[in-house]
Design a protein that fits this description.
This protein has 116 residues and is mainly alpha-helical. The protein has one domain. It is built from four helices and two strands. Helix 2 crosses helix 4. The longest helix is centred in the middle third of the chain and has 25 residues. The chain is globular. It starts with a helix and ends in a 7-residue tail after the last helix.
């Protein structure tokens, strides 16, 4: 798709650190970019721009639907990431992104009082 082509072009033209950071941002694992809660979404504004909208309150019987919707969205995002990284395996970007994810995981699991 054209969106995928634009992303591939950006990842190819960017330095490695920027490309990995962009992937982390798209995957919602970048520390400096806060993410929206699952009950919010972004939609086009009526006079241009964008607006954040809070979904209607979910009833108790809608909890399963909300969970399914959230997991489906995460699964779709992961599938898109895998497709994006598998197109050019020779670049090494997938390996660098994997190492970045390991570093993030390590820093999240180490208690704050422990110094490296």
């Amino acid at each position: 798709s054209s969106c995928q082509d634009i992303l591939l072009w950006y990842l190819e033209k960017s330095d490695r650190e920027s490309a990995v950071s962009a992937l982390a941002g798209m995957c919602d694992i970048e520390f400096c970019v806060p993410s929206l809660p699952y009950y919010c979404f972004i939609k086009p504004g009526s006079e241009g721009g964008a607006m954040i909208v809070v979904k209607e309150d979910l009833r108790d019987d809608d909890d399963d639907d909300a969970l399914y919707e959230r997991i489906s969205g995460e699964q779709w995002r992961l599938h898109c990431l895998v497709d994006l990284l598998s197109i050019n395996p020779h670049t090494g970007l997938a390996a660098d992104f994997f190492l970045y994810c390991l570093k993030v995981t390590i820093y999240q699991t180490i208690p704050m009082s422990t110094s490296l």
